[in-house]
Amino acid sequence: MSTVYDWQMLARLMRRLRRVIWRDDRTLWGFYAVAAVFLLHLLRYATSQPLKSAEPDGDGFYTWIYARSLAFDFDIHLANDYALCGDIFNAGIDEGGGRPANPLYFGPALLLAPVTFVVKTLLSFGPEVNAKWSGGCSGPIVYFVGYSAVIATTLTVWIGYRIARRFYSEGACAVAVVVVGLASPLNVFGTLSWYYSHVWAALAVAVSFLTAFRAHEAPENGRSWLVAGLGCGFAALMRTQESLWLLLPLASIATHALSTRKTHAMWRGTALLRVLLLGAGFIVVYAIQLYVYRRIYGSAFVIPQGKLYLQLSHAHPWLLLFSARSGLLYWTPLLWLAVVGMPLLVANRRMGLLGAAIVVASAANIYVASAALSWTGSGTIGARVQTSLAAPLLFAIGASATSMLRWAAQRRIRAPAALLLALAPWIWTTWMTGTAGMPNDRVVAAPELYSGAVKNGVSTIYRNIGNPWTLPATLVFSTRYHAPPRVFDQLASDGMWAKDYRTLEVLTTDTLTFKTPPPAFYGEDLAKFAARELGVRPGEQSRFLVTLYWPWVTAVRVTARPVSGPATLTIKSASFWRTRELGKVRFERKDTVEIAVPPDAFDSGINEVILHSDAPTVLESWQWLDTSPHDTSIRLIK
Fold first, then answer.
1. pLDDT 10s digits, 294-326
2. What is the pLDDT of residue 130?
3. Which residues partner with 568 through β-bridges?
4. Residues 336-351: pLDDT tens digits?
5. How far apart are CA 236 and CA 253, in angstroms?
6. pTM for the full model?
7. Which of 58-72, 369-383, 428-442, 518-532 has the lowest mean pLDDT?
8. CA-to-CA distance for 45 and 41, rounded, in angstroms?
9. Which is nearest to 218 in space by CA: 158, 159, 277?
10. SS (H, E, C) 160-221
11. DSSP for 326-362?
């Protein structure tokens, strides 16, 4: 009897677990997927983060400074926080508000501060303990607060699962949870670098998704539109560009308006009321950020990084997606499943216009991120700025995985095919062992044997077609620039000629030395002379490719020398779409000549320079100049 009772208890527990994840789940796949994400992130944090030396760094330091100030001082006057914890980028200067500035977003602090307050209350430190420990700059307080990011990551994928399950199958959505939880930027910024704004933005975007879909399901409930506005405001509070997710409830309002315009005489007024409720909810929450800006900067309407930081006319979405320097699809290639799923969202009639809104908002989010001068995310492991897209990516993967599983079931793809797919990596590894240069006269340890074979196989593919995951980019690049596909990886980076967008100080070299070119340079089409010298031969077109960070160039200084006798050098610049002649320069001897160039002759990203000469000419250096005035202020309204 006891055994029967135990089994009944277990069955009831399983039913409750299924309902916790999603009310209509018939198996525990969703629960297992969410639990796996939670446990693996928890294990990673517990085993990789140091208790005694835990300390926020990079931009995340400033997110933490806000949280620390709220938890310890209950204010946003950061002078004492900087005095105790430091100011790693010297950002805490007075920008007009009469107090130290903080250019990072305030929203994450609202989530971190309560946790920090509880942790610092529970922990007790003796008088001999380092002030930075007891003050929450580093050490145990920081370490234990970091566990909250594991919960945030789990909540993000759980909410995403609940949204996706409204439309897609249980197994497919479980797959989506695992992919996004373990193989998206969340795998790093959900645990290892939790003090950045990104994981908190991902959670907030997931919440905004949930509120938007609930409003879509209950359109007659006016309160649901107000809550949807609160959700979108919450997302924008984490990162301003997340306000783009207002497109989701707006698309829902449009869908309902279009469906009732023939049966509802007041459909326009109803739609307007819903928009007003949505806007009111958004403003109520986002006003917190405006208040913080007003207190710190003296104006609610500012761009803390400065007006130069975001350049919508110099965006690089192609590079952001495919770059070897933190590209989203380069570093996390399983997210191709989301790319495949995006058209399926648009085609899903049950969603009305919401599917299209998700695709448009996701694309706009990527475009805005790529318009930052530091579009690579600077120092980062993977595409950290796209961490906030976790919920929409999970939704799109749910769509593609549902279609793939349905296709597989219809074609009865069973055990043999699954087994072959599972064995394929090992077959490939063993096949490539013979040409991997393995020693035959000693013991070969497993890491050397298997990694050597894998490296040999991957290198063979890379030499011929580049990175298979970025073929759309590398094929376009190779076709346009007539260079091997792998050169795209070499060039798709920050590049040279970087300047600070506030001080205009040159951060990396502004001069290209042809004997020792920078990494983001391709000069195989230049003529080769003695002693590693590069240049131009008569009757031949020479050119080089180089990547620039700074999008503005007003002049270039070319240092060259003719090999024998005078030489006239013709210089052209080429963007992806067009070629411009910059001028002709005559060299009698080694000389440096400055050439004024049109405003759009060069840009940030990949640039091509085309050269012709009537005599052999050695190129020694090429310097970029920018003498144009730039508005580096932060206030939008003066």
1. 999 999 999 999 999 999 999 999 999 999 888
2. 87
3. 586
4. 999 999 999 999 988 8
5. 20
6. 0.91
7. 428-442
8. 6
9. 277
10. HHHHHCCCCCHHHHHHHHHHHHHHCCHHHHCCCCCCCCHHHHHHHHHHHHHHHHHHHHCCCC
11. T-HHHH-GGGHHHHHHHHHHHH-GGGTTHHHHHHHHH
Q: Is residue 593 within 8 Å of residue 557, measured between CB atoms?
A: yes
**Dihedral, CA of residue 370, residue 371, residue 374 and residue 378, to nearest 10:** -20
Mean pLDDT (whole number) for 279-299:
96
Closest Cα partner for 177 from 189, 188, 167, 165? 165
The single-letter code of the amino acid at 112 is L
Q: Output the pLDDT for position 262.
A: 76
Residue 166: other Cβ atoms inside 10 A: 16
Total length of the chain: 638
What is the predicted pLDDT for the residue at 443? 78
Written as six digits, the tokens of 216 are 């879509």
DSSP strands (E only) in 93-156: none
The label of the residue with tokens 């209509």 reads: 24
User: Nearest-CA neighbor of 469 among 260, 328, 312, 589?
Assistant: 328
pLDDT, position 414? 60
Q: What tokens appear for 76 in the block? A: 């946003």
Tokens of residue 227, six digits: 């809550």
Gyration radius of the chain over CA positions: 28
For the chain, the structural domain boundaries read 60-145, 149-404, 511-625
Q: What percentage of the chain exceeds 70 in pLDDT?
A: 94
- Residue 13: how many other CB atoms lie within 10 Å: 10
pLDDT at 144 over 90: yes
What dihedral do alpha carbons 359, 365, 366, 367 form, nearest 10°? Answer: 100
CA angle 612, 617, 619 (to 5 degrees): 95
β 605-613/527-528 pair status? unpaired
Residue whose C-alpha is closest to residue 63's, from 259, 251, 221, 292: 292
Q: In what order do the strands lie in the sheet with 605-613?
A: 521-522, 542-548, 605-613, 567-574, 579-587
H-run or E-run covering 596: strand 591-596
Interval 91-120: pLDDT, tens: 999 998 899 999 999 999 999 999 999 999
Q: What is the 3-state secondary structure (H, E, C) of 12-63?
A: HHHHHHHHHHCCCCCCCHHHHHHHHHHHHHHHHHHHHCCCCCCCCCCCHHHH
Residues 511-625, CATH architecture: Sandwich (2.60)
Separation of alpha carbons 452 and 463, rounded Å: 16
Cβ burial, residue 398 (10 Å; 0-12/13-18/19+): buried
If we measure between CA atoms, which residue out of 382, 409, 390, 414 comes closest to residue 176? 390
Backbone angles phi, psi at 87, to 5 degrees: -150, 85
Tell me what the mean pLDDT of segment 18-40 comes to.
83
Nearest-angstrom CA–CA distance, 487 and 133: 47
Residue with tokens 């926080």: 81
How far is CA 538 from its chain centroid?
45
Alpha-carbon distance of 421 to 423, in angstroms, equals 5
